[in-house]
Write a structure and sequence with these properties.
- It is a single chain.
- The chain has 158 residues and is an alpha+beta fold.
- The chain has a single domain, classed as Roll (Thiol Ester Dehydrase, Chain A), CATH 3.10.129.10.
- Strands 1, 2, 3, 4, 5 and 6 form a 6-stranded antiparallel β-sheet that branches.
- Strand 5 and strand 6 form a beta hairpin.
- The chain is elongated, with a radius of gyration of 18 Å.
- It starts with 10 loop residues before the first strand and ends with a helix.
Length: 158
């Protein structure tokens, strides 16, 4: 069954917040095998002009996984997504400033496009990651693939 195209433009604010700590950053850097001193050593980070250690660019993936998704687009039954048919297509971040300890982050995700790609549908979303004070930290662009749900795949008219 095709995704509900009326959802394009709909936004969802994540429930709760995620407070970043040095320990979160250290564990993530170790998990990805990146020993950059700016991630692990406050003195090294301040020598580079940062107020504290900074998070690796892909750290925001953990923030997205840590924020409650009860109000997110993939949890909305009216969108019509079957998670058993979904694969991750693409993700990229535009960083407006580094993530650092003490940041209390929240996110708002907007569905920006749903389109057919052969028998599949591509669901594109943009997520703004902000501090609770409203400062934009990063923008995430994410596309997921809903396999075999395009209207043409199910015999429905487009």
């Amino acid at each position: 069954m095709p995704l509900n195209r009326a959802f394009v433009g709909r936004s969802y604010r994540a429930g709760g917040t995620f407070e970043v700590s040095r320990e979160h950053i250290r564990r993530f850097a170790q998990a990805i095998g990146d020993a950059n001193p700016a991630y692990l050593d406050r003195s090294a980070a301040t020598d580079l002009g940062h107020p504290d250690v900074v998070a690796p660019p892909t750290f925001l993936t953990t923030v997205g996984l840590s924020l409650p998704d009860a109000n997110g687009p993939l949890s909305d039954p009216d969108l019509g997504i079957d998670l058993g048919l979904v694969v991750h297509g693409e993700q990229r971040y535009v960083h407006h400033r580094p993530v650092r300890p003490g940041d209390e982050l929240t996110a708002t995700t907007t569905i920006t496009d749903i389109r057919d790609a052969g028998a599949n549908e591509l669901l594109s979303m943009t997520t703004e990651i902000r501090t609770t004070a409203g400062e934009l930290v990063a923008t995430s662009y994410n596309t997921i693939v809903s396999r075999g749900t395009a209207a043409t795949a199910s015999g429905e008219a487009s």
